[in-house]
Amino acid sequence: MKSIIRFVVFFVIPIAVFILWIGGYLSPRVEPGYAKEEVKQAVKLPTMVVEPVKVEKTYQIDGSVISNNNAKVATKLMAKILKINVKEGDYVKKGQLLAVLDDSEIKQNIKEAKAGLEELAKAREEALSGLKAAEAGYAFAKRTYERFKNLYKENAVSKQQLEEIETKMIGAKAQVDAIKAKLKQLDAKEKQVKAKLKYAKIMQSYAYVKAPFDGVIIKKMNDIGDMAAPGMPIFIIGDKNLKFMSMVDESLINTVNVGDTVKVNIKTINKEYLAKIVEKSNSIDPMNRTFTVKAKLPQDKALKPGMYGKLIIKTGEEEKILIPKSAIIKWGQLDAVFVVDKEGVAHLNFIKVGEELDGKVEVISGLKPGTEIVSSGVEKACEGCKVR
What we know:
- By secondary structure, this protein is of the alpha+beta class.
- It has 3 domains: about 45-55 and about 320-380, conserved putative lor/sdh protein from methanococcus maripaludis s2 fold; about 60-95 and about 225-315, Efflux pump adaptor protein, beta barrel domain (Elongation Factor Tu (Ef-tu), domain 3); about 105-205, Helix Hairpins (Orthogonal Bundle).
- Helix content is about 30%, strand content about 35%.
- It is built from 3 helices and 20 strands.
- Strands 2-11-14-13-12-15 form a 6-stranded antiparallel barrel.
- A hairpin with a 2-residue loop joins strand 18 and strand 19 (about 360-365).
- Helix 2 runs antiparallel to helix 3 (about 160-205).
- The radius of gyration is 42 Å and the shape is flat.
- One of its GO terms (cellular component) is efflux pump complex.
- GO terms for molecular function: efflux transmembrane transporter activity.
């Protein structure tokens, strides 16, 4: 009995006490929740509540200043220049032939495509003739099979004879199906060849470089024997009045129209102009899925042809969060603001900024509407400071 008591006192009880201590049952318990942050120093700073505002939704695209009706006349064909009909300083009329490129390879493609269409036409004629005969054979075999089937029911012919006739009927049907399948293949092939021919004719038209409008040859970029490349200008035609030209995405083809007023920002001279669109291409360039617009610029001696800028087109309205520049603090390479909580305590909050609008900065992410922030004097704020 004493050994049992000794075992309980010196072994069981100490282990139980150790387990309770490990489990935290012998220590004072801390209720769950967040510890209150110790407020540092109090700093009185102006604050503001962030709210989204409606601003113009714009589309911006690169462009350049050009002469009025200025055009870089190029081709979409890679070919040798065989003939040039003009020189620098010559006046030209719209549609006038300026240069001729070597289109011998394209002519060969057109010839092959036309020959292919002729072969397909003959093959179709033969197939249709064969189909007519095959359908007649199938119809005859089917009638014969129906007749033999009735005779078989009357025991006038053997089952083997009936099966032979049925086999012939099935063969005739298979022949009809095969010819129809061949006709479908010929149809598909014909579509392919016609598409190839259409494409070849389009490419052939690029071998004849013509003036897009009345004007003067400002610069001749190539000579006879040079290799013309797609997109590389052969001539530059234009006059003295200035426009701004951009290649606008095809999604805006029905949004941008002649007569619309747009903004043109010329970064070289740090100026912004109101310009009216006077030209718009109604065709889409298949190479880059864009269309060309030209906006007339006001007279300004600071403007020079070739200057880089941005065309700004209003496409509607959208809500954005805008905050003053004075509310932003730089944290290394990052941007941040001080967010003020319900107790008036400031906390550093990192944000992602966008463009500047009317002296304010767009916040792309990191701030929600209704959030209170320090609006200025952020250099005096600190993490955990009471600011109001």
